[in-house]
Amino acid sequence: MRKITLTFLFVALSVILNAQSDLFSKVKKSLKETHPEVNFDNHLIAVNVWSANDAASREANKQFNKVYGIYEFAKLKGGLKGLICVAINKDGESASIILTKDGATKVIQLNSIELTGVANGNVVYDDNGVEVYKNIANDKVFESINKLITR
């Protein structure tokens, strides 16, 4: 009996620790509220969490901006209607000027999401909220999304 209980607790604990973060649901909810014109059904959603003093995250914004312009309406695995790229600013709304200055004008800016314990980085979710990629290197963003093209 004790072995069964320990096994059950071990399985339950591993499921809880490996549970998907709620970042996808927060992004989806915020997109519905702040950008109701955006249809994100059957789209991949790429999220880049950035801050003004992190040059790598700012470069990732530029790469995702480029990819968003190219694959916005492409048929992709996990998002048959294309890709939506979101940049979440950890520094507040005032740093969104930096995003525009960097030339990342296409990505959707979200500033009102609570990000406790979330580090700078990026995640690509399919239309069901399953992680496709996580923390893609800046020089591999285009290549990674390009691999998702369906023919």
Describe this structure in words.
With 151 residues, the chain is α/β, with parallel strands linked by helices. It is built from 5 helices and 5 strands, in the order ααβαβαβββα. The protein starts with a helix and ends in a 5-residue tail after the last helix.
Concise synopsis of the structure shown:
The chain is α/β, with parallel strands linked by helices and 151 residues long. Helices cover 38% and strands 17% of the residues.
Biggest sheet details = 5 strands, mixed
Termini gap: 53 Å
What strand order characterises the main sheet? 3-2-1-4-5
Tell me the overall shape: globular
| Average of pLDDT | 84
Tally the beta strands. 5
Q: Report low-confidence residues grouped into runs of 5 or more.
A: 12-20
Q: Would you tell me the structural class of the helices and strands? A: alpha/beta
State Rg.
Answer: 17 Å
Count of discrete alpha- or pi-helical segments spanning 4 or more residues: 5
The arrangement of helices and strands along the chain is: HHEHEHEEEH
Percent of residues in beta strands? 15-25%
**Helix amount, in percent?**
25-40%
